[in-house]
Amino acid sequence: MIAPPLDLPAALADAVGAYEASGNVGALMERLHTLRATVTPDALVAVAEPWLHMPEVAGPLYERVVDEQPTNARALVILANAYWLSGRGPEIVGELANRALASDPQNRGAWHMWALTESNQRDRTIRWLQVTQRFPEDQLAKAALADNASSLAAAEHDKEALALAIAAYEELWANSPTEQQRAALETALTTLRNYSL
Description:
Helices cover about 75% and strands about 0% of the residues. The chain is mostly helical. α1 (about 10-20) packs antiparallel against α2 (about 25-35), α6 (about 90-105) runs antiparallel to α7 and α9 packs antiparallel against α10 (about 160-175).
């Protein structure tokens, strides 16, 4: 007798629902490993989309995708993000980001993960600057640059970092779509402009 085809979206939704009700990570992992072994990586990519915000779901599914498609930059970035959110650490996440960059140098997510995983504050600020230079319209990278540069300025009394932070926040302010965002950015700018080194 041939088994009926698996309804993968329903099976995954059921596994996640049971996990959310019980909090039993072990049971979730067991079900995810069983599910991922029965289908193609492309099927996993399609079914995982609604669950990418849950690293405990996206991680195990994308481990299989990356195993089967080791140069799939998007899959590498998704796995890196899941690992980062679950606390796997900068070494393994950075290695995945580097693999994604090697596969697709234009993958913005890979650049974000690459910058995020640098532990040294100054070097991380430089990395975010490089990301903003590569992707000038990337407001998220610009915000990360502003935050990292302002932290560097405060920690090391660095005038160049302070100027970089102010310039980044000014650009964010100029491109801000709402008054609420502008007000928050104005507060940050006022603080930075009044900062004495």
